[in-house]
């Protein structure tokens, strides 16, 4: 998701005004305290004025962030970042954009057009940057490394998202229940729990999902696809997370620790279940006799007692 949104932004900018941009280095005059900019092309320094002139060319500078452009029109387009203006609207869904290039890129969602094809595996993409990111799957390249734990990523955006684990940052807050999330895609999915929206429907069985990824993983039930294989025992899984959890059987790793009694678990779900011992929570109630249980499986076994009696 992240890479798709980033692609819309990056390609639109590349298509229009960013190619005309002059990179300027922010400086400050230590005598006057006045902010200034150093042009990377001419190596000359300018005061922060609306228009900068060098030779026969004029540079138009944004008064809000200091970026400079060779054309007045490019500056006007850039200003939409600050004003929030989105004059280009999709006639099919009503979504609007600040750049015409971004609208054209968005239209591929409706047309299904995916003009960028991987020469190695044949997979196609709507955005050139998505293809570029995908190719790292084949090369195994992970150039973006976390300075805190050493984990590396194929995408810079994935690294930025990962760092939030260390900082504890959860910038996306639900206005209805106050729950916070690290990722916008998770936040959007959560919001659908309030609205009940599940726009992604399986054409084979009719099950619907709030996330596109949920539908993708569900389809593997029908196809039988299990693309993630354990290199130690050969067992295969539908989900990468399932393989990751399974590997702890071999490694003995128990990364999920109870803060109250320090008991540790290989699965986060097992920790959550364990916590009910401390809280006394018994959320699973028998509809026939009212007896409550900590675990769903215990309730299921208990219901069999009533069935045998009947």
Provide the fold topology.
Elements: H1 2-15, E1 21-22, E2 24-28, E3 35-39, E4 45-47, E5 51-54, E6 57-61, E7 68-69, H2 72-83, E8 88-89, E9 96-97, H3 100-111, E10 116-117, E11 124-125, H4 128-139, E12 144-145, E13 152-153, H5 156-167, E14 172-173, E15 180-181, H6 184-195, E16 200-201, E17 208-209, H7 212-223, E18 228-229, E19 236-237, H8 240-251, E20 256-257, E21 264-265, H9 268-279, E22 284-285, E23 292-293, H10 296-309
Q: What is the number of E strands? A: 23
Q: Indicate the percent of residues in helices.
A: 40-55%
Largest sheet: 4 strands, antiparallel
* Low-confidence parts: 1-52
Q: State mean pLDDT (0 to 100 scale).
A: 79
Which sequence of strands runs across the widest sheet?
Answer: 1-7-6-5
How does this structure look, described?
This protein is an alpha+beta fold and 310 residues long. Among the domains are: 14-83, no CATH class; 226-277, 2-Layer Sandwich (Double Stranded RNA Binding Domain), CATH 3.30.160.60; 280-310, 2-Layer Sandwich (Double Stranded RNA Binding Domain), CATH 3.30.160. The chain has helices at residues 2-15, 72-83, 100-111, 128-139, 156-167, 184-195, 212-223, 240-251, 268-279, 296-309; strands at residues 21-22, 24-28, 35-39, 45-47, 51-54, 57-61, 68-69, 88-89, 96-97, 116-117, 124-125, 144-145, 152-153, 172-173, 180-181, 200-201, 208-209, 228-229, 236-237, 256-257, 264-265, 284-285, 292-293. The strands form ten sheets. Strands 1-7-6-5 form a four-stranded antiparallel sheet. Helix 1 crosses helix 3. It is elongated. Mean pLDDT is 79; it is low at 1-52. Belongs to the krueppel C2H2-type zinc-finger protein family. Residues 60-87, 88-115, 116-143, 144-171, 172-199, 200-227, 228-255, 256-283, 284-310 form the C2H2-type domain.
């Amino acid at each position: 998701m992240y890479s798709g949104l980033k692609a819309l932004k990056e390609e639109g900018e590349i298509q229009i005004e960013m190619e005309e941009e002059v990179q300027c280095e922010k400086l400050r005059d230590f005598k006057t305290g006045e902010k200034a900019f150093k042009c990377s092309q001419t190596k000359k320094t300018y005061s922060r004025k609306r228009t900068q002139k060098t030779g026969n060319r004029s540079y138009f500078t944004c008064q809000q962030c200091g970026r400079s452009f060779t054309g007045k029109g490019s500056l006007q387009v850039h200003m939409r970042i600050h004003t929030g203006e989105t004059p280009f609207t999709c006639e099919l869904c009503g979504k609007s954009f600040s750049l015409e290039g971004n609208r054209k890129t968005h239209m591929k969602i409706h047309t299904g057009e995916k003009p960028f094809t991987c020469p190695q595996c044949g997979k196609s993409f709507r955005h050139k940057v998505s293809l570029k990111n995908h190719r790292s799957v084949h090369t195994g390249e992970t150039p973006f490394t976390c300075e805190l734990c050493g984990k590396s990523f194929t995408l810079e955006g994935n690294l930025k998202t990962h760092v939030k684990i260390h900082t504890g940052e959860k910038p996306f807050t639900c206005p209805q229940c106050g729950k916070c999330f690290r990722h916008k895609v998770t936040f959007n999915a959560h919001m659908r729990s309030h609205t009940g929206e599940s726009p992604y429907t399986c054409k084979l069985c009719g099950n619907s999902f709030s996330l596109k990824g949920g539908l993708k993983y569900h389809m593997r039930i029908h196809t039988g696809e299990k693309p993630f294989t354990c290199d130690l025992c050969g067992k295969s899984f539908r989900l990468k997370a399932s393989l990751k959890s399974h590997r702890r059987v071999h490694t003995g790793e128990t990364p999920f620790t109870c803060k109250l009694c320090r008991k540790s678990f290989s699965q986060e779900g097992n920790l959550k279940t364990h916590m009910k011992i401390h809280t006394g929570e018994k959320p699973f109630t028998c509809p026939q006799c009212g007896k409550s249980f900590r675990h769903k499986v215990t309730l299921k076994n208990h219901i069999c007692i009533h069935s045998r009696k009947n």
